[in-house]
Amino acid sequence: MEAELSSPGAGVPTLPQPVRGDRVRPGGGSSFHSMWRELLPVGRHPDSRGYRRFAWTGADAECRDWFREQAEGRGLGYEVDRNGNQWAWLGDPAAGNAVVTGSHLDSVPDGGAFDGPLGVVSSFAALDELRARGAGFTRPLAIVNFGDEEGARFGLACVGSRLTAGHLTVEQAHRLTDGDGITLPQAMAAAGHDPDAIGPDPERLARIGAFVELHVEQGRALDLSGDQVGVASAIWPHGRWRFDFRGEANHAGTTRLVDRRDPMLSYAETVLAARREAELAGAVATFGKIAVEPNGVNAIPSLVRGWLDSRAADQATLDTVVGGIEKAAREYAEAHGIDLAVVRESFTPVVEFDHALRDELGRILGRDTGLTVPVLGTGAGHDAGILSGSIPTAMLFVRNPTGVSHSPAEFAAEDDCVAGVEALADVLEGLACA
Ligand code: HGY
Ligand code: MN
Ligand code: MN
User: Fold this and answer.
1) How far is CA 130 from CA 371, 418, 421, in A?
2) Which CATH class, in words, describes the domain spanning 28-236+350-432?
3) How would you list the strands of the sheet with 339-348, edge to edge?
4) How do the residues of the chain divide into helix, strand and coil, expressed in percent and rounded to 5?
5) Cα 431 to the chain's mean position, in Å?
6) Which ligand sits closest to the CA of 386?
7) Residue 346 three-state SS
8) Are 126 and 101 in contact (CB under 8 A)?
9) Contacts of 412 (CB under 8 A, 6+ apart)
10) Does residue 105's CB lie within 6 angstroms of at least one atom of ligand 1?
């Protein structure tokens, strides 16, 4: 789908030709395009062309308004839950055993157009498709927008779903603070949401029989296999650790090298150690965010804060990687007379999606073509992963020809997006209709 953005390098990739298992059917996802065009400009930065849809900001409010319009425009029961997640219901939620689909609308700093919104727009388009088919629903259906999935502003991913599932306490949530010192409660209240209402929502979860999240693939497995749609198997364990290197502020021009306690050196060596440890273990480790105090060109820093994101196929490997990075960091810090504190700010254990639901999706999607639908793991976290401990959850991935994500260059071809809508409609019909 053209995101009105040029992709990197050789320009927007040519539309992949229909290949095995292509799902494009005439008329599929016709409402997709108009919703996509409406949402596309919201929160996009004019220079970077990336998205800055951070939790409880103006851009987030615009996305929420868009969601509410889609819900009410379709006569769906609209509500915002105690944690700020938005729900659009078809049927009576109290009947229970609901089939829920959706994703998130917030983004990472200068993120792409598809990560999150593709799932939400496809959910409404799939419902339109089912209505066009005359499908008869035997279970309540809901479309959800989970708030603050990326954690771009307050540093913790999946706040809306973590609160709902009880994986984040109210006290922990109230302590979350953004880079300007604004707390989550202050940001929520400023956006008109009562921060004292937040908390676990077991009653809501008890009404859900299955949650299926459609998401752009953040990798190239489907591009390499030649498939438009795949089913998720698992999410790697992953987390975020903050490394605080404290040294001694001093004059960059008059302080001899031997007299320095410069935390930037230990930080730099730790970044290189992270790459080494990850390579050795076949894992990933990224220092993507840094904060320097006092952050002056001519001042040796007093403090360098670096945030590590690390992920691995299993817990033991992740522990080895992060342990190795921390050990190296402590050795460097000691050698330079630097104080080091390491704080784990967020962690998500390995997620194995519900096998029965995963296999049901594969059966439904393979029914027409007789082909097996690819089942793939991912290193990316999702609300479906957070909820997997409370309810049966599954994910559908839509082909991303470049694999690039968390970047303005994130891209998915138009016919693949429509194929995703068709696949989601088939899945929802198989799960929620007679
Ligand atoms: O970080 C992640 O994997 C997700 O995009 N929140
Ligand atoms: Mn993301
Ligand atoms: Mn996402």
Assistant:
1) 23, 14, 10
2) alpha beta
3) 284-293, 303-311, 238-246, 339-348
4) 35, 25, 40
5) 24
6) 1
7) strand
8) yes
9) 1, 114, 118, 216, 398, 399, 400, 401, 420
10) no
User: CA-CA distances (angstroms) from residue 182 to 168, 171, 262, 344?
Assistant: 19, 15, 29, 21
- Three-state DSSP state, 213: strand
Of 332, 372, 366, 424, which Cα lies nearest the Cα of 129? 424
Residues of the chain with CATH 3.30.70.360: 238-348
Q: Which two tokens stand for residue 275?
A: 């790459």
Q: Please tell me if the CB atom of residue 380 comes closer than 6 angstroms to any atom of ligand 1.
A: yes
Q: Where in the chain is the domain with CATH 3.40.630.10?
A: 28-236+350-432
Best residue among 150, 318, 378, 395 to mutate for probing ligand 1, ranked by most atoms within 8 Å of CB: 150
Phi, psi of 273 (to 5 degrees): -65, -35
- Alpha-carbon span 104 to 404, nearest angstrom: 18
Proximal ligand: closest to the CA of 157 = 1
Task: Please list, in sequence order, all residues whose beta carbon lies within 8 angstroms of the beta carbon of residue 23, skipping any fewer than 6 positions away.
Answer: 228, 229, 365, 369, 419, 422, 423
Q: Does the domain spanning 238-348 belong to CATH 3.10.20.310?
A: no
Per-residue pLDDT tens listing for the chain (434 residues)? 445 432 333 332 232 333 334 444 444 557 999 999 999 999 999 999 999 999 999 999 999 999 999 999 999 999 999 999 999 999 999 999 999 999 999 999 999 999 999 999 999 999 999 999 999 999 999 999 999 999 999 999 999 999 999 999 999 999 999 999 999 999 999 999 999 999 999 999 999 999 999 999 999 999 999 999 999 999 999 999 999 999 999 999 999 999 999 999 999 999 999 999 999 999 999 999 999 999 999 999 999 999 999 999 999 999 999 999 999 999 999 999 999 999 999 999 999 999 999 999 999 999 987 888 999 999 999 999 999 999 999 999 999 999 999 999 999 999 999 999 999 999 999 999 97
Contact of 146 with 103, CB cutoff 8 Å: yes
pTM, 2 dp: 0.90
- Ligand 1 pocket, mutate which of 105, 289, 400, 406 (most atoms under 8 A from CB): 406
With residue 209 as reference, give the H or E element that holds it: strand 208-216
Residues 6+ apart with CB under 8 A from 216: 112, 114, 115, 118, 397, 398, 400, 405, 410, 412
